[in-house]
Amino acid sequence: MSKRFILILLFTFCTRLYHINFPIAGWHSWRQADTAAIARNFATENMNIAYPAIDWRGETPGYVESEFQLYTFIIALLYKLFGIQEIFGRALSVLCSLLTVLGLYLLVKKMIDERTALWSVFFYAVLPLSIYYGRAFMPEQMMLMFSVFGIYFYSQWLDDNSWKHFLASVACISLAVLLKLPTLYLGLPLLFLSWTKFKFALFRQPKIWLFAVIVFVATFAWYYHSHSLKSLTGLTFGIWEMGTDKWGNLDLLVTFKFYNDVLFKSIAERHFTYPAFVLFVVGLFLKRKSDNERLFDFWLIAVVVYFLIVAKGNQVHEYYQLPFMLPGVVFLAKPFSRLSDVAATIHFSEKTTRVVLALFATATIVLSALRLVHTFNSERYDTPLFALSTSVQQIIPENDLVIALSNGNPVVLYNAGRKGWNCSTSEINESYFEEKKRLGARYFIGEKNLFFENGAEQQLDFIRNRYEVVIDSAEYLIVRL
Prior knowledge:
- A hairpin with a 3-residue loop joins strand 4 and strand 5 (476-480).
- By secondary structure, the protein is mostly helical.
- A 5-stranded mixed beta sheet has the order 2-1-3-5-4, with helices on both faces.
- The chain contains 22 helices and 5 strands.
- Helix 7 (140-160) packs antiparallel against helix 8 and helix 12 crosses helix 15.
């Protein structure tokens, strides 16, 4: 590997170390809290990977319908060896991020050239959300790692027909899909590679059929079992709730807001930054020089189809667009690796084009840094969340169930180290509290700002007047039920 790539890899590593030992809080803490809770519950309750459990379980054992929990299980193993510390989850994400950069470099170098590969991984290393989610306590980086290596090993298998590359690819693709079901979209770039190699004869290739059978059988087996957990406890992350939560929202596809939110507000502004997005668009229109290069067109198309299917999820959650960035940075890299082509297209001299590209690259780096500063500012210790969590751990017995005012965010229960129910201010009334008391709830906890932000001062007064107040500080409330 070239020295330039090693430097990029080192840069990738260093930029993802910020706050690597920070607790679960801040930007998108709700998703990280669920992930961290499952890892902790594996380590403290049951090291059976088939039975992931969450904290917002009420009186149930907490088993939840979810994706395959390889990421959290590996973290739980580290917890067993070294103790429960969030640094292990973040470190695993950093490792997967580094391996993603390696896989992307190898794939682009093979399919296009090394210059494009270096620029691709450079931008992947510096773009803001790639950095942020590259050290977040979430399985996304592991999914991206398996995705890129699944395609790379598949292309290697097509070249040498070796079992080692076949098995490596099928393992990576299967795990990517198990970690995130929508990753089935990878079938399109794999189909393109197969077509390039075999044309219509691809349907007569036993190994291709075997590949598909393994992926689909593994996927069906896990998600069938996972759905049975919902039947047992009623707990789910909403994987199959078509048209309500994440996917199947066809009405969104005819609104301008959906495309504006996903394409411009999220991909252009947050993921790429606008200067890099402009260069991405330029790269889309540069001439392809080989069939292999078209792999990234089909990969990009596959991700866009996934956007349309999982419309609500993509509109609400920016990290749903992380898969777009793997093929996306390849198009962003092309103007830099094909300077003469860009110069001819825009009718500038190569010297002028080089200056323009340098300005765009500099603007991308600066805007990435500014966005990261804004994002990391939310990771602070001096917040009501940590003050509340410390008091809960001191006052409430570990096995007592609690009701946490959180508007659905599991971060309160996670940091408090307690199990129970999440609730919103709209749910707070006597019948709700009495029902939860019958199910075993012993305490109510919550930050006061949620009452004031939602105009729920009457609910706050109701709790104070009806139950035994343990702590009523300026920032939070703890009540014995």
